[in-house]
Amino acid sequence: FTTKALTGKRVVITAGPTQENIDPVRYITNHSSGKMGFALAEAAVEEGAEVILISGPVSLATPDRVERINVVSAQDMLVACESVMPSDIFIAVAAVADFRPQVVAKQKLKKQPDNEQGLLLELVRNPDILATIAAREDRPFCVGFAAETENLLEYAEKKLKAKNLNLIVANDVSNPAIGFNSDDNMITLVDRELNTTRLALTSKAKIARRLMELITSYYLKETHH
Ligand code: PMT
């Protein structure tokens, strides 16, 4: 009998896209499938953790022994995350929409004589879920993902500092074989001292297992277990 490293610890993971309504039938979203976040949830269960997975709209089955909370918008996702705090580890894998329509039309938007030339959609900033959780007094150990199409490590390091994270996972999404909606991934984990660990191209399930081991060892080091 061996006690797993995260036994008794709560891990909260966000996954999938968010949907930001324009009107009753239309919304803004992105290509996140939830695969990476769901694979990490499974890997966290394997480490013995109590796992809460807060997911945007995706078509994946909930992994065994994972508590799942479904949300639609970024605002919903923030409320759900705050409702399950405090936690020991927070991992933000979700591709949260940075902007949402300023007003959600009550009725379906119609083609009309006054919009023959086009329609201007005004967007406002969404809350940053990860930065909000990382700024709490009872802040968990915080891990972000950085989906970038250029200057991967530079932008990832900037996000690590700006959002006050413990770790960030740099994910090059310019390559369609990895990143959004692919079955495989290839990542670089960056810590606060800017040490990097590269995980070579393999399935998201395997990346998730290795990444969860790395996150666990950083977490245990930082909390002096
Ligand atoms: O779901 P898959 O199809 O498997 O694809 C996986 C993935 C490519 C979506 C995933 O690996 C990934 O990179 N997720 C982060 C996507 C993203 O939106 O990154 P970002 O660089 O825009 O955001 C940086 C970090 O802040 C992320 O941890 C994000 O969850 C978080 N964030 C961003 C904006 C916001 N309003 N709130 C947030 O919490």
What does this structure look like?
Catalyzes two sequential steps in the biosynthesis of coenzyme A. In the first step cysteine is conjugated to 4'-phosphopantothenate to form 4-phosphopantothenoylcysteine. In the second step the latter compound is decarboxylated to form 4'-phosphopantotheine. Residues 6-217 form the DNA/pantothenate metabolism flavoprotein C-terminal domain. It comes from Entomomonas moraniae. Its EC number is 4.1.1.36, 6.3.2.5. It catalyses: N-[(R)-4-phosphopantothenoyl]-L-cysteine + H(+) = (R)-4'-phosphopantetheine + CO2; (R)-4'-phosphopantothenate + L-cysteine + CTP = N-[(R)-4-phosphopantothenoyl]-L-cysteine + CMP + diphosphate + H(+). The chain is of the alpha/beta class and 225 residues long. The protein has a single domain, classed as Rossmann fold (3-Layer(aba) Sandwich). The protein is 26% helix and 28% strand. The protein is built from 5 helices and 12 strands. It has helices spanning 35-46, 74-83, 129-134, 152-162, 204-222; strands at 10-15, 20-23, 26-28, 50-55, 66-70, 89-92, 99-101, 123-125, 141-148, 167-172, 184-191, 196-203. It has an 8-stranded mixed β-sheet, with helices on both faces. Strands 2-3 form a two-stranded antiparallel sheet. Strand 11 (184-191) and strand 12 (196-203) form a beta hairpin. Helix 1 (35-46) crosses helix 5 (204-222). The longest helix is centred in the last third of the chain and has 19 residues, at 204-222. The radius of gyration is 18 Å and the shape is globular. The mean pLDDT is 96. The structure holds ligand PMT. Ligand PMT binds next to helix 1, helix 3 and strand 9. Ligand PMT binds at residues 14, 32-36, 74, 92-96, 98, 126, 128-130, 144-147, 159, 171, 173, 179-181.
